[in-house]
Automatic annotation (TrEMBL):
Its cofactor is Ca(2+). This is Glycoside hydrolase family 97 catalytic domain-containing protein. Residues 303-444 form the Glycosyl-hydrolase 97 catalytic domain. InterPro entries: Aldolase_TIM, GH, GH-type_carb-bd, GH97_C, GH97_catalytic, GH97_N, Glycosyl_hydrolase_97.
Length: 624
């Protein structure tokens, strides 16, 4: 179907929503490749998703279960039917098709400086034809990057509160679909058939279909909802069901988070499609010009002297931030702690003032105990001290209550001009578009755990689809399982506007290794991002641009690989200086990284024989 005809159809059905039949909603993406349909032929609301005429999601259940009996009785509606499932008595009233959207916007920072927001959309309207006054809409968008839908409760005239107890949304895949799943946000991955996911698995969940197509299941705009995971249904083959961590109490009108089914022909294209997560969140309101992304190094010793020394190292190596991690106040894992009082061995104001002189901002770790107890008092105080940002640790996030609390924490930090980095299990769903002071978050099995290379080259196609991740890159620590060139490459592949480097390291470990120039030159936000090749668990080749400069990196798994970097992403007709960082036992340094330079252009192809657990990092700058 042509784009022109889709636009004509959408405009026509705005005026006459029943003209195509009220019982079925069906829309295609602007490029015509993705198509989604919703209908309610009986008690169950069902949907399907096709790509190029092939089914990605076979007929699957949709909807929510609501337990409103107590509120119904309290508000005088005591004779309403109580079906086994709240969806059973809903009937489709109409389908509204909306005008196509085709726009661009420019984020404060990101993997791309221009984001394209382009989709077709429609809404399925349902209600119960009794005295309940219950209504439910399904809002659906079809993007070239995938399909998104959410449930919307119009305002209830009797002000009946809604207690949502179950998310009924299923995803039925063709038999033979394989998934990369993990049971918690900081876990490693299992590569198994869909039916083998017997415990709730995290989003993003990446799947390879027998047809060779790729799908990833994510969510967006989740600040007023609970954590929802996915697990196999025992009574329906190749089907994943939604698992809510807790009930959600809502007041109508109300929209649930968006459910995203990303689609792609290759796993690398999933990464390039991840702007869909941002597009499904509200835009930022107000002034966030004070938010400044950059690199950060931790002072591993809590003392004034260690802080000053770390600041000197940061200033010398173009690292704009320094972090005091836990124990700058005590006890930091108890409600008896007081984060307004600094331990005696740190002259905090001296360190902050010295950092300001050197152009290095200071971040502070604060545990949930202190945040629960003191946040309203603490955030204005930290701003008064001159603190640049807060790293929150061990925060609760999964239940409805704690999800609201956590996102309100980011809002309060913004009110006090504090940037944020949320650590431990929390994963992003695009909230940084609305509150850009949330630069990054953990929610990843990163370098604190010293994962192997196969795990690292699975992450870009899974966890990194959600958004930025604070991987906490180590460099000199003897516990590293992977090569140093692999570590350099990771700092480009694992996108984070606040990129932590030298996580377990101290300034005195540096011995003049020439490859540290890679970290000095590296930026943390980009104008363009391209995935040149890759497959989960095997390897990835990625290129990113900032201004006129390009950075490229290749990472391989535990077994090593041969990788070709096609330089066609460079501007044709221009020559570039390429600074290349590779593993080489003859390099003459303890890190065994060789630094070479050469002239290249867009017609060149660079070949690398990556050793097991290895990598390569390259910076391209226009030649004079």
């Amino acid at each position: 179907m042509t784009t022109y005809f889709i636009k004509f159809l959408a405009l026509l059905t705005i005026v006459t929503p029943l003209s195509l039949g009220a019982e079925i909603l069906s829309i295609g993406s602007p490029d015509g490749r993705n198509r989604v349909s919703f209908e309610k032929p009986g008690k169950e609301l069902t949907y399907t998703i096709d790509r190029d005429g092939k089914q990605l999601i076979l007929p699957s259940r949709a909807g929510l279960h609501v337990d409103n009996r107590v509120w119904e009785m309290a508000l005088g509606k005591r004779d309403l039917a109580q079906p086994d499932c709240w969806m059973d008595l809903l009937e489709v009233d109409s389908v509204s098709y909306h005008a196509p959207v085709d726009s661009t916007w420019h984020p404060l920072y990101g993997e791309r400086s221009t984001v394209h927001d382009r989709y077709n959309s429609a809404t399925l309207h349902m209600s119960r034809h009794d005295k309940s006054d219950y209504r439910l809409d399904v809002e659906v968008r079809a993007y070239d990057e995938g399909v998104a839908f959410r449930y919307f409760f119009p305002e209830h005239p009797a002000a009946i509160f809604h207690k949502v107890t179950d998310d009924l949304t299923d995803y039925t895949f063709p038999e033979g679909t394989m998934a990369w799943s993990e049971q918690w946000a900081q876990a490693t991955f299992d590569h198994t058939p869909v039916d083998s996911i017997l415990r709730p698995a995290e989003r993003a969940l990446t799947l390879e279909l027998p047809s060779g197509q790729w799908v990833a299941l994510l969510d967006a705009d989740v600040d007023d909802w609970c954590l929802t995971k996915l697990m196999a249904r025992s009574d329906k083959k190749s089907t994943l069901s939604s698992v809510m961590y807790s009930p959600v109490d809502i007041v109508t009108y109300y929209a649930t988070p968006w459910k995203i089914v990303m689609t792609a022909d290759t796993p690398g294209k999933l990464i390039e499609n991840n702007d869909i997560v941002q597009n499904l969140n509200p835009r930022a309101e107000g002034d966030f010009s004070w938010v400044k992304p950059g690199k950060i190094m931790r002072s591993t010793i809590i003392s004034t002297e260690a802080g000053l020394k770390t600041i000197d190292f940061c200033a010398a190596h173009n690292i704009p931030y320094m972090l005091y991690d836990w124990q700058w106040y005590m006890p930091c894992t108890s409600h008896d702690g007081d984060a307004t009082q600094v331990v005696d061995k740190v002259d905090m104001q001296r360190v902050i003032d010295y950092g300001r002189e050197k152009g290095v901002g200071v971040w502070l770790y604060v545990n949930q105990h202190a945040l629960m107890k003191q946040m309203d008092e603490l955030f204005p105080l930290l701003h008064q001290w001159g603190v640049a940002g807060v790293k929150s640790g061990f925060v609760q996030y999964a239940s409805h209550r704690w999800a609201v609390w956590l996102h309100d924490m980011v809002r309060k930090a913004a009110d006090n001009r504090l940037m944020m980095n949320i650590h431990d299990e929390f994963r992003p769903s695009g909230f940084s578009r609305t509150y850009p002071n949330l630069l990054t978050q953990e929610g990843i099995c990163g370098n604190e755990e010293f994962p192997d290379a196969t795990h690292n080259v699975t992450l870009p196609f899974t966890r990194m689809l959600n958004g930025a991740a604070d991987y906490t890159i180590c460099y000199y620590d003897k516990r590293l399982k992977n090569t140093h060139a692999h570590q350099l490459a990771a700092s480009l592949v694992f996108y984070s506007p606040l990129q932590t480097i030298f996580w377990y390291d101290t300034p005195d470990l540096y011995q003049g290794e020439p490859e540290i120039k890679w970290f000095e030159d590296l930026v943390t936000v980009f104008d363009d991002t391209r995935v040149l090749s890759g497959y989960p668990g095997r390897g990835i080749v990625m290129a990113r641009r900032n201004g006129d400069d390009w950075w490229a990196a290749a990472m391989t798994g535990n077994d090593g690989s041969q990788e070709t970097i096609d330089l066609s992403f460079l501007t044709p007709g221009k020559k570039y200086n390429a600074d290349i960082y590779t593993d080489d036992d003859s390099a003459g340094t303890r890190t065994r990284v060789k630094v070479t330079s050469r002239k290249v252009n867009s017609g060149d192809r660079l070949l690398f024989d990556l050793k097991p657990r290895g990598g390569v990092a390259i910076k391209f700058s226009p030649a004079e």
